[in-house]
Predict the structure.
Amino acid sequence: MTPMTTKEEVLRLLQSSQGEYISGEDLAQRLNVSRNAVWRAVKALQGEGCAIEAVTNRGYCLTRTPEALTLAGISRYLPQNGDWDIRVYPTISSTNTVLKEMAEHRAKEGTILIANEQTAGKGRMSRPFYSPAGTGVYLSFLLRPTFSPQKSLYITTAAAVAVAEAIEAVSDKAAMIKWVNDVYLDGKKTCGILTEASFDMENRQLAYAVLGIGINLREPVGGFPEELRPIVTSVFNDATYSPDGRDRLVAELISRFWGFYRHLTDKPFLKSYQERSLLRGRDVYVINGSEKTPAHALDVDDEFRIHVRYEDGHEEWIQSGEISVKPRTNFS
Ligand code: BTN
């Protein structure tokens, strides 16, 4: 068994004190750590939704623990006949990384890993993905597609629509998609998607694809890190967040994505995707390496290419990949 972290030990001691205050000094002595380490653990637990009161000269008292992310909680909202193998983790390095390892060891299509926290969350372009506990949900689906690898973009675009529709099913927000697959609320990013695939050279098919989705559910205590603050937002706020809403959102996402995936090459999500296009009708820059050309985004075609018109009147349909398209002004 892995040893408990200071955070887990502090939580255990506060839980066992049953509503009584324990001083920081007492906690520090019992755990053989510094008072500062206790204070940091308390802050982290508060960030995860534990209500811990801190009173001078008395210490800390736990008044409410967050309802943990559990399979039972999510399953309440999933259809009984779903053929998934869902595993829920309080914390994991990265759901994508672990699921890729499982895929190499023959895990079946429909294996889904869901985590409350990632310690090494991955974003696109090898960027880290901020994945703190208790404020987001991080999940990955294992797929073993039999369709042509050329259609693999459909996986990500279907996922973006499934996220957008799931958010709308559990909140009063209108979700938009920034080409190709970022989900936006109120002009800011709330969900990122990273699909990683393994190609089988022999039969020229995908051996598997791991679709990873990270959604900001609520703002961490103290807000998002400074550098993310202007660009990210969350589905819920402190007044609208509930563990039940979180569980419904995850279940809605799984059901909707799976519904799309079963008929993926028919693109049943295309219209919803096109209607949610955040770039449509906006002035943009088309960025190709160091070249940045002003253009106007017209629409997204039925192969998820963005259709732009340059200032000289020339039009182009851009495929996702090397070239990126960015709005010329902020969304909000
Ligand atoms: C991005 O916006 O750059 C993509 C972010 C993808 C994050 C998700 S969270 C679940 C899965 N596991 C990871 O390590 N990454 C993806």
Q: What stands out?
A: The two ends are 48 Å apart (CA to CA). The longest helix spans residues 243-262. Residues 94-96, 118, 121-124, 127, 129, 138-140, 192-194, 212-214 surround biotin (CB under 6 Å).
